[in-house]
Amino acid sequence: MTSVLVIGGGPGGYVAAIRAAQLGGEVTLVEKENLGGTCLNVGCIPTKALLHAAELVEEAKHGADYGVSLEAKIDFGKIQTKKAAVVKQLVQGVTGLLAANKVTVLKGRACFTGPGKVVVEKNNGNEVSLKPDRIIIAAGSVPATPPIPGVEVKQCIDSTGALNLDTVPASMVVIGGGVIGVEMATAYAALRCRVTVVEMLDEILPLMDRELTKIVRAKMVKRGVQVFTSAKEMSVEDKGREAEVAIVEAGAEKRFQAEKVLIAVGRRSNTKGLGLDKAGIKSHRARIVVNAHQETSVPGVYAIGDCTGGCMLAHVASAQGEIAAENAMGHRAEYDGKTNPSCVYTNPEFSGVGMTEEQVKASGQEYIVGRFPLAANGRTLIMGGDGMVKIIAGKKYGDILGLHIVGPRATDLIAEGALAIGLEATLDEFIATIHAHPTIAEAIREAALAAEHRAIHIPQK
Ligand code: NAI
Q: What is the DSSP code (8-state) at residue 435?
């Protein structure tokens, strides 16, 4: 029986462990904190729980338009209790799944002591030495600290801190307009905190399609979030109860006081203390170097997810976990990120898969674009939303290059685009597929029609 050691129990590690067990491996998983990792405990899941509460507050504002008057009274303690309950249930679910797959879970810290050799310092003080046939490293990431003067003052928090506040602060400055920054800004602004986002690049969410990012930014501003981009020379100073954040924007200095300053400038690979050098595993800037099989420079040792750098997303880690497990168990699988969707849980939601228009332009290929405004979609109107579906296709064959959506349920709808890209579908296949009415998904087909200047529900030039 092949013995497989998985280091880390996040969405990369626990999925890898289950897949290796399914394939007949004798699997041990080591986790120093909680099963489920960052995603379940201090990332995706608790953030979405907070955002759901925020969405209820927003919905209540518009209840009267539908003849249902609602008053949103915010009990932040209860929001936190509900969030904790969801997290607990999911962690228990992972625990149960690992047990059902006969995976041995060791609670402790794993460290390489030599090639193929690992010692686990268990949380109960005992030590276990292991020499498994295969190793999968899924050590995740930790928040990065930017070189900003004053970033260590007491008002500064990271995403974990932002998820665990006791009360909603009156004001918050968010440094970094990436995914964490805009999601936290969305949640806290709805919970009646005065939020300011400062981003050093010339647009927030710099990796998303620009045209649609502008819509998301405008919505955030409409909901009361101040957004400053191209912010330079940032500094933070402790002013007692509040901190003062100074930036230079368009040559002018601006200062903001806030009770909390959220630092959300990215995450770094969590490989410190793993002893990679002792095992001869190559890394670059702390990120473990892997090939398409997720194998490291040492045969039989694999690495997946955030600790390899690249796209730090839970679903990427899980996909890579399955690939690594299959390779560890003697199969031959390769990771291909082309169907990997990006989802941002703003209000409205924002998602994309494939290439952005900027990337298509840079690639030099000829392309066409179809757009469908969600203001012309019945279901969206009923929900009181708006937004846009944008589809990008090759000019010659209509092959789908990218799908981008801003609107209600955009993060669920993007799966259709991911499947289309995976199947190398064309506009014709979207068009030939009957989409249910009334749904928001109809707008995806309409965007495909619009790319061929034949949308039904918007006038065509
Ligand atoms: P990020 O890489 O998405 O964004 C960081 C932002 O901070 C960038 O826009 C960057 O230009 C900016 N920045 C960097 N240094 C700065 C500075 N000194 N001052 C001002 N701005 C600065 O990283 P983020 O938001 O911290 O998220 C970490 C990871 O977690 C990402 O890989 C993200 O994709 C992932 N994540 C994914 C979520 C999702 O899929 N919905 C939700 C939350 C996080």
A: P
Residues forming the active site: 437
For the record, the structure tokens of 412 come out as 């669920």
How does pLDDT run across 132-147, given as a tens digit for each residue? Answer: 999 999 999 999 999 9
Q: Is 173 near ligand 1, meaning CB less than 6 Å away?
A: no
Cα(176) to centroid(ligand 1), Å:
6
Q: How many Å lie between the centroid of ligand 1 and the Cα of residue 351?
A: 15
Of 158, 227, 265, best ligand 1 pocket probe by most atoms within 8 Å of the beta carbon: 265
Sign, CA torsion 74/75/76/78? negative
Is the distance from CB of 131 to CB of 116 less than 8 angstroms?
A: yes
Give the whole-angstrom CA distance, residue 342 versus residue 361: 19
Q: Kindly report the protein residue whose alpha carbon is nearest to atom 2 of ligand 1.
A: 266
Q: Is the CB of 310 inside a 6 Å radius of any atom of ligand 1?
A: no
31 in Cβ contact with 6 (< 8 Å): no
Structure token digits, residue 103: 């995976």
Q: What angle do CA 232, 233, 238 make, to 5 degrees?
A: 125
The b/e string for 9-43 (b: 16+ C-beta within 10 A; e otherwise) is bbbbbbbbbbbbbebebbbbbbbbebbbbbbbbbb
For ligand 1, say whether the CB of 352 is within 6 Å of any of its atoms: no
| pTM, entire model | 0.97
**Residue listed under structure tokens 């915010």:** 74
pLDDT of 398-413, one tens digit each?
999 999 999 999 999 9
The two tokens of residue 118 are 């690992």
pLDDT tens for residues 40-68? 999 999 999 999 999 999 999 999 999 99
Distance 206 CA to ligand 1 centre (A): 9
The residue whose two tokens read 């730090």 is 312
How buried is residue 248: exposed, middle or buried, by Cβ count under 10 Å (0-12/13-18/19+)? middle
